[in-house]
Prior knowledge:
By secondary structure, this protein is an alpha/beta fold. The protein has helices at about 20-30, 60-70, 85-90, 90-110, 145-165, 190-200, 220-230, 250-260, 275-280, 290-295, 305-330; strands at about 10-15, 35-40, 50-55, 70-75, 115, 120, 165-170, 170, 175, 200-205, 215, 240-245, 245-250, 265-270. It is globular and about 55 Å long.
Amino acid sequence: MEDQASPGKILVTGALGQIGSELVAALRERGGADRVIASDIRMERADREGPFEYVDATDVHQLRDVVRKHEITAIYHLAALLSATAEEKPHVAWQVNMDGLYRVLEVARAYGCSVFFPSSIGAFGADTPRQQTPQDTIQRPTTMYGVTKVAGELLCDYYYQRFGVDTRGVRFPGLISYVAPPGGGTTDYAVEIFHAAVRHGRYTCFLRPDARLDMMYMPDAVRAIIEVMAANPSRLRHRNAFNITAMSFTPEELAAEIRVHIPEFTIDYQIDPVRQAIADSWPESLDDSAAREEWDWSPQYDLPALVRDMLENLSSRNNHAESNLQTAAGAKP
């Protein structure tokens, strides 16, 4: 496997989000902190472990200036509104998701950068086969988030075919992480449930107990980004974007696995009709054979491994936070 990302420097937009928080750290571990420029429109949590720039991805001047300043050769474009938030603010979602991508691609074309663009299972729709969803199939999403993801896939393909921009992407399933909080997605329950289990021993879920969706643990997602960008381009018949998958489960199945470790954990349900309707239009499982064939994709985490690792890390963090609170309380006069 070639390492296409090693020369030059990398710009990560939306670096303070769920994926960016872990991707930046992984890229810096591989290539050095100074080689990865984190950027976001938020400053209150600006990354202090390496270079950080304020960048509004919809502002072509800011993008161009950062690319020139740091001599960027690859852009990992993560800035976007997620599914549930995009339904609340569809006009903002179009501006952020589509205008931002267009400007990133224009800057990449002008300065010879490669581009990673994350698509999603949201790019499919109710007419798509829901089991073992094919790599190449009908894509008629009914959400603004899904529309921007399909359009983004096509736009990236266009920039590769028309201008030779090295665009690559994957279609992410629901992503689960203990590092960053949920960001307004339909699969957020699968993150929230762990926090609730550790802190309260119970959780109220906004999806039905039998709502099966494709899922992935964040370490696998980060590794997929790095691997697809490092893949030998001569092997890539697809580019934007590859189906990737790791596991498929329902809220009830996830709760049962949590009870293996926390037997007293309970779950009840208060269905959110908007997010349930979105979930009902998404695949239950994906066929990722193209990714396996073209760049040797293979996940490392299944459901038991995911649950075990999430609970261990969140319990450790929770215990550390409680210890700090007790120490601070004891220090008061």
